[in-house]
Amino acid sequence: MGKQRSYKSLREEAFEANMEIPQRGLAIYTWGNVSAFDRKAAVFAIKPSGISYDVLTADDMVVVDLEGTAVWGDRRPSSDTETHRFLYRAFQGIGGITHTHSTYATAWAQAGKDVPVFGTTHADLGFGEIPCTAYISEEAVNSGYERETGSLIARIFKTLEKDPLHLPMALVAGHGPFTWGVNAGQSVYHAAALEEICKMAFFTLQINPDASPIPPYIINKHWERKHGPNAYYGQK
Question: In this structure, is residue 185 part of a structural domain?
């Protein structure tokens, strides 16, 4: 399979990003996956299903095209492959997707709650509250669970008129977080940052159950200074 092309650099990108999941404490055992997308070639490399991180190698990565066909690798791809495939089709400009079951982000997903913008840490990362989808319907589960999970995420962004490049994350009710970025590494960065934001939000409500989101003008300022056209955060 795939003798004409090995997709070596893409598989290595996906492998390195997947290894960040246990390194950052975002999942135990096999509870997470990352994919790296080559939009020009219209293929993505993704973690194989059920393979523990401590034995994972770049050669274990599976390369899948946008039709869902494996074009390189002998392993079975992640059970979440269809969710990744749907999101690559739905969200232009993304080049990596991460899914974990990190503790705090998953707790918010299980509670079915959006994450309010309680502080500037959140505003620096994403423009607006982090949405949680509705529960997936029984019909959708039976017609294609993983594909319909991707559809849930895409649909809530369309309904809320949110830009997925300005808010690179979502919670799937009862399931867990999905994050994305311009490449696989950035998608893991967003997963780690999301976990911290969800943790901070949880403690905020423990300290003050009546806490309110920060004012929009503060949210706008922090987003613009880091991501806007005249951003001045960091080095040129």
Answer: yes
